[in-house]
Amino acid sequence: MSFIAELSLILIAAAVLCCYVGWGAARLALPPSLASFRAPLTPLIGYVVLLWSGFMLASLVLNLRWTVAVILIGATVLNILTWRAEGPPQPLAWLRAQPEALIPPLLALLTGILPLLEYGYPTIIGRGWDTEAYLPMAQHLIDYSLPRIPEAPQSLLRDLVTHPPRIGLTLGFSIFHGMTMIFSGASALASFAPVIAFMRALAVLAMYVWLRATMDAGRVGSFLGATLTALTSLMLWIGYFNFGMQMSAWCLLALALTTGLAAVDDLAQRRLAAWRGALLAAIALAAIPIAYYPALVIAVPLISAAGAARLFETWRHPQPYTTPISLALAALALAGLTLAASALAVQDYFEGFSFRYSLIEPKIGPDRFIGVDEILGLTAFRLSNDGDQPPSLLIGVALLATVLPGCAALVLPHRWRNDADAGERTRLRWTLTIAAVAAALIWLRFGRPYEYGFMKGAAYTSFVIWGLTASGVERIAQWTKRTGMLLASSAALLILACTGWSQSLTVADHIRGPAIFTRDIAAFDRVAAQLPHGATVLLSGDETLTGPINGMLATMLYGKELWGRVPAAYAAQSFWSPGETPNYVVLAAREDPWPLDVGAKERWRSSAIALYEMPPDATFVLGRSESYVIAAVDPKSPASLAIWRRAGHNRVIAPNEPFTLEMPHAATLRLTLAALEAQTVMLRQGHTTTTLSLEAGVTTIKTGSSSTVQVIPTAPLALVHAVVSPTDTPTPVSTSLDITRVAWSATSEQQGDQIVLSTSLANPGNHALRYEVIIIGDTFDAPVRIARLLAAAPLEGEWRLALDLARGASEARMNGAPAPMLAADVAVNPPDGRYFGVLAIYSGGAVVAQAPLFTMTMSEGAVATFEPVFFSVETARARSDASPLPAHQRALLAGTPLMCDELRLALEQIVLERQSPPPGVTPVTPLSPGERLNVQVFWRATGDRENQDRSPMVSFQVLDDENRKWAQWDGVLGDWLPVPAWKPGAAVRQDIPLTLDAATPPGDYRLLLIVYDPSTGRPILVAGQEAAVVGKVRVAASGGIDP
């Protein structure tokens, strides 16, 4: 199904669901005064019934699947009765009479989904993190009633949404979202933004009906007011920013005013005969707290103003069947019904919502109380209050054009009406309504000053102000035919130009691309849906996924049991079932593909995420000491998160701490161990003992056994992991040293005024590496970096760094001798605060290992507290192995090194890496024009380096059959480590950035590597060639593929 078709299906499903459920209720229950507005009120009534019924049933006994079935059965019965009583629906008759009523809602709907149409794929548009609660809430309610959510598979989001009052989550949005998912078959991710846009369109439609039915506006005034409401950029931004609860309640404000006032009038006149309308109005009023409790801050003053105006009208102009007392009694009766209908929501409020909403704490901004121009959408709202805006003159004139017609609406009566009482009634209603809005805004601004809360509350008031302005424009046009028409048209055009300009800026801010969930993340949704329900998935805690991305991945993996130390935006989990192996592993794309080392298959990859399928019959034992330990974390501390994600050190195996593994059946065991020194290891299998010699580095021991296996070293080493695979054939004992990896460890301590860091390295492959040490503030709020040091690592042995932060001094030593720094930036006398240190190890331009070293606090220029992180022996992959490689990488050389005899160098391997591979990339997926590549070139010094004082250059080129270049890069061979500095046997990784020309035509291309002397331009032979062809690539018109 195409994306446009999927989007259309979601919107049609939401609309049909609302109309089907609302048709019978609207025809049978709406008061007689609203009979002419049954058609536009039908989807709104259906929406209210769905929210209220869904909340009542899902909160108590039924999941949303059964809830929708019950509602549809009830709606079907009601629709049949209505058909028999009043005949079939006639929507076209109303559309022919008032076609303009649908234009503003359709405009609101279009602008709500416009960014999605530009992206071309389903995703979340804005930066808000609340999707982490909305989406899993809808998913769980589809399958479980609220009390039974704890029965769902283990997941950090299951625990998050188990008790909604605790996190301040009202259920209205999630209920309607879940119902739309059921009806359309769309995923939570795909349907979220369309549902937000649909709710915004409902709000605009409700506003049109409110102006016509309650505020006595004409067709022109109602159309203009609804259009201006649709063009209000603040509410569009709120929709883009994922404020689902706020958007779900918006349409209920105008609807409650319309149905509530009509129901009170009907009750006062017909008493018990008006019970249907009263019940419907009570449900509409009760739906407001179900959708969003804070909406009552605006709804209650508006409802009170409408009631006061109606009472005053009746007192001033007595009517035969309606008196102030009867109205008051009717209002009390409706209030009682409303309280009864909202009893469950009231109970939830006091179980947690009241506490959540009593807090005033910084959220996402803004850091200011927004002005009337932002409330009305005359300027584009942004959290940071910067960026392009309409011209100041236009804003000022539009604001004046807003105020003056509003004043006219409060003064001028309807000219075409001879009923003076009707004009007085309308002016009174507008006066009290505006007074209610002003009172609410004043309370939000001064009674409980909170910039974030003021912004969200003030956004609800724009439809009232635009309704007043539109009514004033209509009045001016009526009172003086030509002049009035000109003035009214000019005012309307000015306001429309300014609001339209502002809204176009808001759309432009979001149309460039989604804020968080890009194509490479969103595409995982369909892949995750294909995994078996109930499968166990280990989810990475990598820092590139920490926060809302992990939350979205957990949402996409709904129905699966999630393992791992996973920090999301509002939740975190620490879970791994001991002795069991996950079925799948989800890692950040940049992470070391360790599942491939244990026999897993890469199932899917994008530039952000990689999915691996673990061997079905293998048992995987992770070496991390705290992998199976449930631990809490401080989500506001980057240091705490980094230490927690690490899950402890690799398990130490020592002479007095042997490693024992029970083998219940005949199996092959692969033990991967890391050691900093050469030693012997005793491997006991039942009554057999084998002595093995291990070199320093990372070694895999492979053996077959059907009994207990015990590993006893002569010196401490560390367990990286163990894999047990069933086998029917004997497996002899063997060892394999991995020269592509290094073993390392680090210690840090405070010595007086100094911080001393020591690292040890076992490097059997002689890889040239770099150490980077950073000390940074332990906060997410503009952290201060007080130190950054970069140095070459020894090929083997110890590197030691001493830091004096008070003086801003540093000293490095390599195996005891002073060593120069590649970069040193240490702040003198850093500010007081909490900091943490991080060590990164570079191979070429890539970070191959990163770990927190310590936490500390500075006070008055001195280290007040210092807490080191313990390390046993860690590992890092210094170079890519030829096999297996992730799907976005491809080894170009067949295995035979290319020799450069003149420089005494060998080109051992070249790996072509796609920087932004399309989702679902495979090794044979063609490249795209303009694609960015990273060419990993692995050199090795093959001989004595004497008399090698030249720094040659290397050129990497992409040529077609006619030798035209479509990409080229030239730079120093060795990059940060020029050839004269190489030691014999050193292996140097060089990362070459290469970007294909955006105009590269489809076809096959050659990859050429050229080494040359920069002083003369003379080529230096590589494999006996001046230009060595090291591989081929294929370019297609588009490298993107469907996941």
UniProtKB/TrEMBL annotation:
Annotated keywords: Membrane, Transmembrane, Transmembrane helix
Regions annotated as coiled coil: none
Positions of transmembrane segments: 40-57, 64-82, 102-121, 192-211, 223-241, 247-264, 325-346, 393-416, 428-446, 452-473, 485-502
Keyword Transmembrane helix: yes
The keyword Transmembrane helix belongs to this UniProt entry's keyword annotation: yes
Superkingdom of origin organism: Bacteria
Protein name, UniProt field: Glycosyltransferase RgtA/B/C/D-like domain-containing protein
Organism: Roseiflexus castenholzii (strain DSM 13941 / HLO8)
